[in-house]
Design brief:
globular; 5-stranded mixed beta barrel; alpha/beta; two-stranded antiparallel ribbon
């Protein structure tokens, strides 16, 4: 499986400014959230990146990407018809190639030295030659924010799961009835990480969903991923790392702490935190 292309979605009206926020990355350099996500993708060997944006946002995103802007293609989502529709806007860019997909409002911190989360995901997809969605064991109280995966552990592998179903933002009752995965702590579920390796089949499924949407309502990604698992092998990888949603309350603050504590300035940041807490 060759993976030369990536798609980053950043067109949700309520989240379109989040990738432009500035943080200090693990290397101690101030960067936009968009730049940090782009570097995550490039670390996995991707060469071309499409960013799905609201109309008119291309120039601001190009500036936020800095010298990496030369790698970018901007695709506008003219009507806010949902996450799945935003990804489907990249159909021409993707063509019939498999691709990496990340969301623009999440930042990632790997717990494996020298190997980012996107690298772990791409290596798993290439090793198994199939779609792989990254997941993270997540507390039940966070179910309203994520798509949730149900399935079974791959034999002789503690981090891979065969996906059997995916439900977007399930209730605790739904999750308990059909999404419990053996081996996870009680009250925890495999929630999507905001990072996938996908085949063009998912683009086809999103196109079908759009064509069959009589009311032209929102098109979501999770139903297409669930359908994908019925057509092709689709694995979930429990990544060695954590995702940070910068779109939730204190999300940017939490992400900044995570980046700082995993970076070159950890000691300095810890000293400042001790001083702050003691004050």
């Amino acid at each position: 499986m060759k993976l030369k292309k990536a798609v980053i979605t950043a067109a949700a009206p309520a989240q379109r400014l989040l990738p432009l926020q500035r943080l200090v990355d693990r290397d101690g350099e101030e960067k936009t959230a968009l730049r940090i996500v782009i570097e995550e993708v490039i670390s996995a060997g991707v060469e071309e990146i499409a960013i799905i944006v609201c109309p008119g946002d291309g120039d601001a995103y190009r500036e936020a990407a800095g010298e990496l802007a030369a790698r970018l293609v901007f695709v506008e989502q003219h009507q806010p018809r949902g996450y799945g529709d935003a990804l489907h806007r990249a159909a021409d860019f993707v063509g019939r190639e498999s691709f990496v997909h990340l969301v623009g409002d999440h930042l990632y911190v790997s717990t494996i030295a020298g190997k980012r989360c996107a690298q772990q995901l791409v290596e798993a997809a290439q090793a198994h030659d199939c779609c792989v969605s990254a997941v993270q064991a997540t507390r039940e109280n966070m179910l309203p924010y994520y798509g949730v995966v149900g399935g079974r552990r791959v034999e002789r592998n503690n981090h891979l799961y065969e996906i059997e179903r995916i439900i977007e933002k399930p209730t605790p009752t739904e999750a308990e009835q059909s999404l419990i995965v053996p081996g996870l702590r009680a009250g925890h579920y495999l929630c999507l990480f905001g990072m996938h390796v996908l085949t063009p089949t998912v683009i086809d499924l999103l196109g079908e969903a759009a064509a069959n949407s009589a009311d032209k309502g929102n098109i979501q990604l999770s139903p297409a991923l669930a359908a994908l698992a019925q057509r092709e092998r689709h694995l979930a990888l429990q990544v060695s790392g954590k995702r940070y949603n910068i779109g939730v309350k204190y999300g940017i603050l939490t992400a900044q702490f995570a980046l700082a504590l995993a970076g070159n300035d950890r000691s300095e940041v810890l000293a400042e935190l001790v001083t702050l807490l003691a004050g």
